[in-house]
Write a structure and sequence with these properties.
11 helices; 42% helix; TIM Barrel; alpha/beta; eight-stranded parallel beta barrel; 250 residues
């Protein structure tokens, strides 16, 4: 049985003070949840403060990005080792906003995943198709390319710390959500790709989560699907009541 994984990506929101206020509200509202993993991903400047606030709680910490080198002349970048030192357990990689707005490629994302694996950190590995790719029946080809290139030369033992996040780009921040059947079909296809790359046992253990306008009123149906193991939540994770309801899906 795969333990459900619910993560909140705060994106470019919240000062340190606002982050701590949100954390205190979440710690109270989800303190009794023990059968699912809860993760929040604040901005870099709030990581250390949020890490201290999360001590002793049932909420883990993620960063929103990293650079695939531990040290060096890389002005403005943050390494996996520094994120681990700040208290992170996971790092989001390959998010569509970084692919589209900042030109990140599959090989670059793969380098990040391998760097995180080398540091013993978990990766929340994002993949997904654009609206044009969906409408021209390229979804499965896109997912195949992103999964195989993104996980190239990643050792099978590292997959225990990797969560794959299927985020159809046309559903992120648009209010549109993939139907339950659309999401389940994509997740089942991704699990088949993982089986081809790493074998049946690894594919059955890896958690594949859905992202794309997840809200309190659609999470129950999504989580009822066989191959959907959790959610990567954007805007709704900025409101304690909404994120708590998503965490406590029926």
């Amino acid at each position: 049985m795969r333990k459900p994984f619910i993560a909140g990506n705060w994106k470019l929101h919240n000062t340190v003070r606002e982050s701590l206020e949100l954390i205190e509200a979440l710690k109270t509202s989800v303190k009794d949840v023990t059968d699912r993993e809860i993760v929040v991903a604040p901005v870099f400047t709030a990581l250390a403060s949020v890490s201290r606030a999360l001590q002793g709680s049932n909420i883990s910490l993620a960063a929103q990005n990293c650079y695939p080198a531990q040290t060096g002349a890389f002005t403005g970048e943050v390494s996996p080792s520094l994120l681990k030192d700040a208290g992170c357990d996971y790092v989001i990689v390959g998010h569509s906003e970084r692919r589209q707005l900042l030109g990140e490629t599959d090989p670059f994302i793969n380098a990040k995943i391998r760097a995180l694996a080398g540091e013993g950190l978990g990766a929340i590995f994002c993949i997904g198709e654009t609206l044009d790719e969906r409408e021209t029946d390229q979804t499965l080809d896109v997912l195949h390319t992103q999964v195989t290139a993104g996980l190239k030369e990643v050792p099978a033992e590292a997959m225990a710390r990797i969560v794959v996040a299927y985020e159809p780009i046309w559903a992120i921040g648009t209010g549109r959500t993939a139907s339950e059947d659309q999401a389940e079909d994509a997740h089942a296809f991704i699990r088949g790709l993982l089986q081809g790359l790493f074998g049946l046992s690894v594919a059955q253990e890896v958690r594949i989560i859905y992202g794309g306008s997840v809200k309190p009123d659609n999470v129950d149906g999504l989580m009822a699907q066989e191959d959907i193991d959790g959610c990567l939540v954007g805007g709704a994770s900025l409101k304690a009541a909404d994120f708590s309801r998503i965490v406590q899906f029926a």
